[in-house]
Amino acid sequence: MRIGIVGGGAIGLLTAAYFCGDHDVTIYTRRDEQAEKLCTNGLTVICGNERTTHRVHAEPFVREIEEEMLFIAVKQYDLANILQTRIHMLQANAIMFLQNGMGHVSYLPHVPHHHIALAVVEHGALKIDDTTVSHTGVGQTKWSVWRGEKEAFSFLSSTNSRFPFQYVDDWEAMLLEKLMVNVAINPLTALLRVPNGMLVTHEPYRQAMKQLFQEVASVFQLEQRESIWKHIETICHQTAANRSSMLRDIESGRKTELDAILRYVIERANERCVPAPISTFLYALVKGKQLEGEKER
Amino acid sequence: MRIGIVGGGAIGLLTAAYFCGDHDVTIYTRRDEQAEKLCTNGLTVICGNERTTHRVHAEPFVREIEEEMLFIAVKQYDLANILQTRIHMLQANAIMFLQNGMGHVSYLPHVPHHHIALAVVEHGALKIDDTTVSHTGVGQTKWSVWRGEKEAFSFLSSTNSRFPFQYVDDWEAMLLEKLMVNVAINPLTALLRVPNGMLVTHEPYRQAMKQLFQEVASVFQLEQRESIWKHIETICHQTAANRSSMLRDIESGRKTELDAILRYVIERANERCVPAPISTFLYALVKGKQLEGEKER
């Protein structure tokens, strides 16, 4: 199958690495330089002590793409631009979105593809350099159909056991659960500069996370609140030593997914006239840290 | 006049330094070692390029004190113990409390002294070592009578021009204004690890401080809200390069005045059934940072 992957970040490279053995994969990058390096050096994935390099095709995303299947693996903050101005350049039968947050859902009615799926990635992945990704935690990718037919994505059933896909019926509950996880873990770890585990082992931080969780759960009138809270605690324990992507972005002075996560919550709260003081306060603090970091660079 | 000063921290040493020229001053310390050093080396105050050493008497606070006037210059968190168990050891005609926060006010009905005054110190002071204090910012000490007569404190009118006292009528408004300043500046600078000026020059932080201020102002049904907010902004500008006492305490792994400041707010909010989500959230985050620091030591 001819598969295109838009985005050369950690998730794009990881996805490419696990499909390029069985499929004809092209990675579409933002920078010429990364595409050239991928063509020359191949794509290396590190998993535990294993280090595997795959031949892969890559090119910068500058002209029209024609593929059978497309994975959109850019960050939420780069997606709006693609959906608004370059969606006609993405020719494919089926398309799958791999973003955090839910901001992209409102654009989907304007996406012309017959078969549209949404997915949330529950793998640990770290981009080491332009051609190397470390698969730091084997998890799964949950996915759901937003428009069209599930069968258009049937090739997902025969993936590598280290990169499984699991279908779920309710795409909204799926995205919301991931959003709750990101809301609870990312901004707090970025602000406090602590690894994920501290949010559950350090009691004051656990209380703060719970308070934030309750507020956001109210904004979304979340059902199964207790089980999602337990899920978040489990993730913190399982990834105790990890530094969240937002913490790493803040430390490196990079742009973060703060807007896709916390500003999205605040906007929904405003629409629904539900107060969200903690989300608003935390947003300002982390935004401030992000701007401090950008100024230093 | 025979003046006793209970507490050998920055404020106690500064007060002693400015009274010991004209009065018979004794500093009552917690540790034997500090009292011995003060008796041997004298008390040095640094102000700008000047460095002055005064002969001073000091002894550990272990037995009954008899003075004409007493300044209580211990931190709020040490005061409860003194007021509850050792108040009978403090013999004096008049007594003045120099604490941040308002937690001590509820104990005052049990304080036996005829003349009781409350004060808020608006000087910058930094304890360099057991016998040296740096007067980093010349301000004033506002004071007010809680019980008894203003005339019992008449010696305050003839103090050094670098250490002026200013009488105000409304002790509650005086303490509340200082509390608002401390609430707005201390926990945020401690959490964010930024100097005071960043809270007004860095727009997201200013927004967060404003949000916190509004919440706490509502808890206390604060009048003159706009003028107190301007006062806080002015202090941030005037002390832009300073690191707040709470930030320095956090960085050094010392106990902070967080409870005297922010837990006091939360308790009043609970009593009055007013929501205080931001204060509660911020309290947990700074408490967590404080405990992290203590664990590391």
Largest sheet of chain A, in brief, is:
8 strands, mixed
**Number of DSSP strands of chain A?**
14
- Oligomeric state of the chains? homodimer
Strand sequence of the main sheet of chain A, in spatial order?
A: 5-2-1-7-9-10-13-14
**What is the helix tally of chain A?**
10
Name given to the CATH homologous superfamily of the largest domain in chain A: NAD(P)-binding Rossmann-like Domain
Helix and strand run of chain A:
EHEHEEEEEHEEEEEEEHHHHHHH
CATH topology of the largest domain in chain A: Rossmann fold
Describe this structure as you would to a colleague.
The structure is a homodimer of 297-residue chains. Chain A has an 8-stranded mixed sheet with strand order 5-2-1-7-9-10-13-14. A 4-stranded mixed sheet of chain A has the order 4-3-12-11. Chain A has 2 domains: 2-168, Rossmann fold (3-Layer(aba) Sandwich), CATH 3.40.50.720; 173-296, N-(1-d-carboxylethyl)-l-norvaline Dehydrogenase, domain 2, CATH 1.10.1040. Chain A has 297 residues and is α/β, with parallel strands linked by helices. The first copy, chain A, has 10 helices and 14 strands. In chain A, strand 11 (124-129) and strand 12 (132-137) form a beta hairpin. The N and C termini of chain A lie far apart (43 Å). Chains A and B meet through helix 6 and helix 10 of A and helix 6 and helix 10 of B. Chains A, B: Keywords: NADP, Oxidoreductase, Pantothenate biosynthesis. Chains A, B: One of its GO terms (molecular function) is 2-dehydropantoate 2-reductase activity. Chains A, B: This is 2-dehydropantoate 2-reductase. Chains A, B: Residues 3-147 form the Ketopantoate reductase N-terminal domain.
